[in-house]
Automatic annotation (TrEMBL):
It comes from Daubentonia madagascariensis (Aye-aye). This is Alpha-crystallin A chain. Residues 12-121 form the SHSP domain. It holds the Pfam family HSP20. Belongs to the small heat shock protein (HSP20) family.
């Protein structure tokens, strides 16, 4: 419904919500909050492929109040093109909230290209120095 949309915020700030999840995208960062309280860290896999982040959780049968239950979920979110994919982070809080976030690169910079060293190759034979 309309209440899902955050009102009174800068237009650069968007919020999408569903049952047990929320995505926030503003000028500086992109954040996914996901309620994964039924899963332990080893039950979860988070991977980025192209412009999508995939979050997968699965645990085998465990006993709860009503018997045995196994759970699995699979979520896929599109990353904004200006998220710096080299600086993504993911954390799991004590109360079972998974937070996946990535800073956004300010316009004018290329997103996702982290600084890298360029090796200097050496020629084997010395270049012929001009004879004086």
């Amino acid at each position: 419904g309309p209440s899902t949309w955050a009102t009174g915020l800068a237009p650069a700030h968007l919020v999408w919500e569903g049952r047990g999840w929320q995505v926030r995208s503003d000028r500086d960062k992109f954040v996914i909050f996901l309620d994964v309280k039924h899963f332990s860290p080893e039950d979860l896999t988070v991977k980025v492929q192209e412009d999508f982040v995939e979050i997968h959780g699965k645990h085998n049968e465990r006993q709860d109040d009503h018997g045995y239950i196994s759970r699995e979920f699979h979520r896929r979110y599109r990353l904004p093109s200006n998220v710096d994919q080299s600086a993504l982070s993911c954390s799991l809080s004590a109360d079972g909230m998974l937070t996946f976030s990535g800073p956004k690169v300010q316009s004018g910079l290329d997103a996702g290209h982290s600084e890298r060293a360029i090796p200097v190759s050496r020629e084997e034979k010395p270049s012929s120095a001009p004879s004086s």
